[in-house]
Each structure stands twice: as C-alpha cells, then as structure tokens.
Amino acid sequence: MKPFEYQRVSDPNDAVAAVAGNPKAKFLAGGTNLVDHLKLGITTPELLVDISRLDLTEVEELENQGLRLGAMVRNSDAAAHPLIRRNYPVLSRALLSGASGQLRNAATTGGNLLQRTRCVYFQDLSTACNKREPGSGCSALDGYTRYHAILGASPHCIATHPSDMAVALTALNATVVVWGPDGERRIPISKLYRLPEDHPERDTVLEHGELITAVELPPPSGARSTYRKIRDRASYAFALVSVAALVDVDDSGPTPLIRDVAIALGGVAHKPWRAERAEAILRGSEPSLEAFRRAADAELQGAEPVAGNAFKVQMARGAITTVLAELTDLQEADHE
Ligand code: SF4
C-alpha cells in the first residue's frame, strides 16, 4: 500500500472542499471496498478524507410520507429499520442479500452505491483493464465472464455493477442527493449510473468532489415488492442475476389487472437495469405466467451475452417470471 494523507471531517462542506481541492483525493466512508483497493493498488490516492463521522446517520420520514436515508446509515441498520421493512421490503431484502453481517455493519448507504465492479481483471493489476487503466484493453472479453454483462455492454468493458441495494433503489425510483462544490444536486437513481460505452473508467455521472449525502424514497405505493438474488452460494456472493420488483394489481373488477409494475435487474449490466420494455408490456395486462414470460422475453431480446455467460439470459427470464408470479400469488404449481 502506498502512503497517503488522512483527514477526518465532521462537516460535509469541509469534506467536499478537501476532495474537490485535490484531484488525487478520495472520500472514505465504511471502507469495505476502498480499503481492498488500497491494498491491491487499484487506487493510489494522495489524500483520504474520512467522512464516516458526518452527521448523516438518520432515517427520516419525509412530509410526503417518503423516506430519507442519510448517506452514513449502515446497511444493517437500514435493512432492520421498521419503516423500511414494512414499506419497502424490496430494499430490506436486497440489503440483507448483500455481503456478510460484518460487512453490512460497516458499509454505508452512500458507499454501497459507489462500490466498484468485482470483475476479477479489474482487481488484478497484472491484467489489462480499461476500467482500471483506460486504453489498456479488456481481459474479460476472452476470459472469465460468468459474472459479466449481457445487456448494455461495450467492446471496451463488459463489467457488471455489484450492488444489490442499488437494484432495489432503481425499482423504487429513488433519488440520490448530492452535495458538491456547486451546491446540491438531486439525481434520479436511473440517471446516476452510466453504461460503459467508451469510458468504462466512469461508473457514475458524479463529478470529482461530489458527495452523496442522502437517498430519498418516494412514498410507499401499496405495491407488493420483493428481491430475488441468484448466486453461486447461499451467502456472501455477488449476483449472477437478481430481480427487484414491485407489482400493484387492481383486483376490483371481474379480472385482475396490473395497475403498475417496476422491475430492475442486477448482475446483468454496468448499472442496475430497469426493465422498461417488460414493464410496458405488463401494465394494464392480466397477471399470468404467459404474460410474465412474454415480458421477460421482450426485455431480454436485446441481450448480447459473450462466450461463457449465455446461461444468464435464461436465468434472468426465469427469475423475472418467478418474482412476478410470487408477487401476484400465482401458484408454484403453475410454473413451467
Ligand atoms: Fe476491466 Fe471492464 Fe474488462 Fe473487467 S470487463 S477487465 S472491468 S474493462
């Protein structure tokens, strides 16, 4: 590990000023991802600005009945919060599916959103990686791709975003509140993350020195919601495919109809993937396994798997169908 300066701050303005004033400075929150990167040499900052003591640890109900999570709320506290468990089960379940108990005790809301890909080549300095070293190439293209993208990738990078929480927040239409040198910005989470295109080194639209201070959730809609994660072992593993979904069924008429639906996929793209095509097909339709499969197929029509990860297309199709069936009380016996 290379030596660096360390500065602890207690005010967001000081944090922003310290990082914005030094192009080689970084924020340090829970450190669950960044400290690994320091040890591996993936990042070599001159200055670490410790924001873990910022007073951003509250979960507050908003006037509109939505919820505001401070950026320093620990993942385990968010997962266990009564309002989140009751009104946003998709978020609580996504949080509990991530990492381990110890890591969730340390990881923060803001840090979770900004964790970086676990692509094995990104973490191995002896290999080419455009995300770590722009222009060097992408070792994954001819390598190990089990955890890599099937949607929205580019010839420069096929990495996936590793956060479970971000997938749930994408389905929930959360807003990310950011404080920076030019004041506050409010970014819909659907606009926070980038696809790799020809700049895979940039994961998000945040500028250097911008600090996530909170995440805001819209008022609970009454929709049922859940999160399902498929992985290689039962815990402490990243998603091969995950699905966060909310479904609101109107059953006041002779035939139940899907009034609204939100679906986000994890483990399939450089960002949490909002399944807008599937949603459009399902809105206003009668819940059925056939409709769910048709919607999943429409979403996955644009999938471009690489050698070694074509299985994820069928896996995503099955996961979408299963989650929607669960949320609409279709019987397991009805599954294919
Ligand atoms: Fe690097 Fe992206 Fe290629 Fe992985 S997939 S080696 S992160 S450029």
UniProtKB/TrEMBL annotation:
Q: What are the residue boundaries of the FAD-binding PCMH-type domain, all occurrences included? A: 1-222
Record bears the keyword Iron-sulfur: no
Q: SMART domains annotated for this entry? A: CO_deh_flav_C
Q: Give the residue range of the signal peptide.
A: none
A GO molecular-function descriptor: FAD binding
Keywords on this record?
Oxidoreductase
Which superkingdom is the protein from? Bacteria
Name of this chain's protein: Xanthine dehydrogenase family protein subunit M
Source organism of this protein record: Glutamicibacter creatinolyticus
